[in-house]
Amino acid sequence: MRKDIDVNVVEPGTPGSPRHKIRETSTNHAIIFRFTFPKSERSNILFSVFDAGRLSFTGNNVLNGQGHLRGYQNSLGIREGKTLYFYAEFNRPIAFAGTWRGDTVGAGTRNIEGNRIGAFAGYSTSGNEQVELKVGISASSIEDARSVLEKEIPDWNFDRTKSQTKSLWNKALGLITVQGGTENQLETFYTALYRTMGQKSNVWNAYRCAYPLQTIIDPSLNMKIIRKFVRDYEKTGWLPSSQAMIGNHTAAVITDAYMKGLRDFNVQEAYAGMRKNATEATMIPWRDEGHITELEKCYFDKGYYPALPVKPDMKVEKLWKKRAKPTGVPSISANITSAPCL
Predict the structure, then answer these.
(1) What is the predicted pLDDT for the residue at 199?
(2) pLDDT in tens, 171-230
(3) Predicted pLDDT at 8
């Protein structure tokens, strides 16, 4: 039988003699940290933005800013190149602060903008002194991130936030109850179930099992996600993609839900988005969104992808990552070694 579990708490450090302890627990769009520092004249908390961004200290206990997402979609559904906003608040006035750019530190500076930037806030701490920090995140604006934080973590009660989060997770994991098995087998099962419930806005591989599972145990959540897919299409002109692999993974999620009788979304708009992604978006791996190239045109006309001629001025070649060699698409045209679109 499932038992309650402790989730979303991290305590790194060298076993037996940690220099400091970090605990964290989160809500849907916010997180609260509790730092326990040793005795030190300068106990620092660091913030980093590796791509283009902006950081700004406001008042005596707030840091906010924005940065461009790096990598694939995150749990908020924000894609690479999009902006993520945050609002961070400390539970006590900052003793000292500053910023950096690359290897250059600007002690006392309050604002910074650009690439490879960061900020630090710190205190003079006695042994085992605690500082708390809570952060709200938004894809819309800093003000929205602040509103999210005020709504989801309105006070400084770390243990209550942790308890509420634990209850929510146990309710979610309680959608499936199993009997029998060893303690290790139960842990393995519920850990796997827990992982299926994260990163739902990223359809890469999750369309295979995680989404179909969700249509069974919590179909209302899948409907919420599919409605977001449709809103993305209405806003951007494209359904979300995996941004990594070939195929239209969003279409698989939508079709699976539809075939299982889940229709609480705009079916016509969803179909329009699926059709556009299938007929107007490139299927080149790691660039599976945006308008089609001559490769897709050949595929639609002839039924296969040709091998790319090895020419430095080849237009399509520029779309490929270094990991992809310009010699064709073996998974689709395994018996084509060097075929032009003839």
Answers:
(1) 59
(2) 999 999 888 899 999 999 999 998 888 756 578 778 888 899 999 999 998 999 999 999
(3) 38
User: What's the rounded mean pLDDT across residues 318-331?
Assistant: 41
What residues have CB less than 8 Å from 40, skipping those under 6 apart? Answer: 124, 125
User: Please, how many CA atoms are within 13 Å of residue 170, restricted to the half-sphere of its CB?
Assistant: 12
In the chain, what are the domain boundaries?
A: 21-166, 200-272, 293-342
Domain covering 200-272 assigned CATH 1.20.1050.60 in the classification: yes
3-state SS assignment for residue 107? strand
Alpha-carbon 233 to chain mean position: 19
Helix 158-173 and helix 183-196: axis angle, to 10°? 100
Q: What is the Cα–Cα distance from 312 to 69, expressed in whole angstroms?
A: 30
Task: Give the tokens for residue 33.
Answer: 């940290």
**How far apart, in whole angstroms, are the C-alpha atoms of residue 330 and residue 316?**
17
Closest CA to 328 of 43, 341, 140, 59: 341
Contact 119, 57 (CB under 8 A): yes
CATH topology of domain 21-166: Beta-galactosidase; Chain A, domain 5 (2.70.98)
